[in-house]
Design a protein that fits this description.
Helix content: 55-70%
Number of domains: 1
Strand content: 5-15%
Oligomer: single chain
Strand order of the largest sheet: 1-3-2
């Protein structure tokens, strides 16, 4: 398992920091992958906004007005809005998708957000031995817990590919729904 959770005081005892040279070498290897995670995630979020516009309006002038609201929304509310719009289409029997299909899409989008957040909020300068990085600190009644994740190149490549495929899956889902709704296929 590559995730480890420790009470804060134990986390400091469990891992030692890498040397400055090891840190520089590690960051040189992984930073391009972290960049690709952000690039693919941002593209996925842009597609979600576009698909909300497409589901709500089909007028370029009104689309710009809708952007006033979309630009103020974070990823999770955009996902919820798009999934709810798709859900309404399913409920109206306007498309041949099921709520199970929608649940799979939702799980994929939530997993994308989780992965992106681990990268965006990780303590990359505080890398520990064996490539463990602090990705989350959480306070509980029994203390503050730190979750470390091991980030090696195969894991980074897998996460980049997961986000890339998620965007294609969302696009295919959206295209199929609109082909069914509007007969454009």
């Amino acid at each position: 398992m590559t995730d480890r959770i420790y009470l804060r005081s134990r986390a400091e005892d469990e891992f030692e920091y890498v040397s400055a040279e090891e840190l520089d070498s590690y960051l040189e290897r992984i930073v391009p992958y972290v960049g690709w995670i952000i690039v693919h995630f941002n593209s996925l979020e842009d597609h979600i906004s576009a698909f909300i516009r497409q589901a709500v309006l089909r007028d370029p002038i009104q689309d710009e007005r809708l952007d006033v609201f979309l630009s103020e929304m974070m990823f999770a509310p955009k996902c919820r809005a798009l999934l709810h719009l798709y859900g309404q289409m399913i409920e109206a029997k306007a498309v041949k998708y099921t709520h199970d299909d929608l649940n799979e899409l939702e799980a994929m989008l939530l997993e994308c957000a989780k992965r992106r957040n681990e990268y965006a909020h990780a303590d990359w300068i505080g890398v520990k031995q064996e490539s463990y990085v602090l990705v989350k600190a959480q306070s509980k009644k029994t203390g503050v817990f730190h979750r470390y994740k091991k980030f090696d190149v195969p894991r980074l490549e897998d996460d980049v590919e997961y986000l890339r495929k998620a965007r294609f899956t969302l696009c295919d889902f959206n295209d199929a729904i609109h082909e069914q709704l509007h007969g454009s296929g």
